[in-house]
What does this fold into?
Amino acid sequence: MERYETNYDDFTLRDVNLDEQSGSLSPFTFLCITLILSMMGLLFAYSASYDYAIRMGQAHYYFLLEMVLYGMLALVSGIVLYFTPLEKLEKISLGVFPLSVVFLVLAAILKIVGYDASAFVPFPFFRVSDFVIFSTVLFIASAFPRIRKRERRGWIYLFVASSAVLIIVSMAILGQYTYAILYFLILLILFNAGGIERKYTFTFALFLLTFVILVVLSSKDQTLMIFSRLMPSSDMGPESRIVFDCISAIAEGGIFGKGIGRGLYKLGIIPDIHLDYVFASFAEEVGFVGIMLIFCVFSLFMFLGLRAAARACRQGLDFIRIAALGYTYLIILKALLSILVTIGIFPSSGICFPFFSANGPEYFLTILECSLLYRFIHITGRGYERRRG
It folds into this structure.
């Protein structure tokens, strides 16, 4: 005899089968985690950006207001995506991905010929890179399960791999080496989740990594910049000075930090601290305790996302499985790479810390990704949607 019990499903009271639908509170838990990260992000983004906004001649809340507006837009977009049938979402992703690649390649070509690409491309470079990665996750989640049983699926895999090479080379041309690394890692995860044999994934990874290294090292300026970041003690140029100041800010945070809003390195000492180096400002103000707290929150975020992917695998929902896996790792890897940039392991190229960087478009995409993850967690946690649509 099946056991039923009254339980809460976010905002509605429903009767559920606990044996089949265990973990029904996962959507609400994920919603709380996302809300905590969003509120903390707005708070520390304002703390890191108000001085820069004043020096720009803007109101001290300029970047905070931008993030709030983009967040509201993302919330509306997320609601629309929540009620969009999965089949239609898959079809949309098949068209959005090529469009995003065209914009990225156009930006790279314009930079090669010496034009200001911002006059032709509707987004700054790193916004296009963000959108390319966002659309790639949906594209692979939609395309790979469809072609898994086709006899000539190798040609489609070759097309995706060729597009990946073009994307990473374009990012390298634009100087976005950290984004290229992020895209490379996400591709490996998605290829493995999409069913491509590991030997082919490994071969592609070696080829792509070798190709990117050759492209990067072909430019003397790019080579000097990278080695300056990888070995900051070798000189005290501008890049090394930024790394030294970031590490000093983190060290001065101590155990409990200086207090929210009381950091000093955001007052013109570290350039773009509200974007690429916001982790340094955060660590200075909250210290080791705050860092451990945010790590725990992100760990719970990752756990819920990966559990949704595992449940989707058991339920045969391949699109949800791959997309949930991709967006979970995308947010976590972006946060990790942002920290590594801050301490000088990787060269800075405009990558932001999710939720915390004072960047409206970045905040928009992060909230949008969380909206999709919420839907995936809700579907797999309740178990009521066994088919797409």
The first helix runs from residue 26 to 55. The CA atoms of residues 50 and 61 lie 6 Å apart. The radius of gyration is 22 Å.
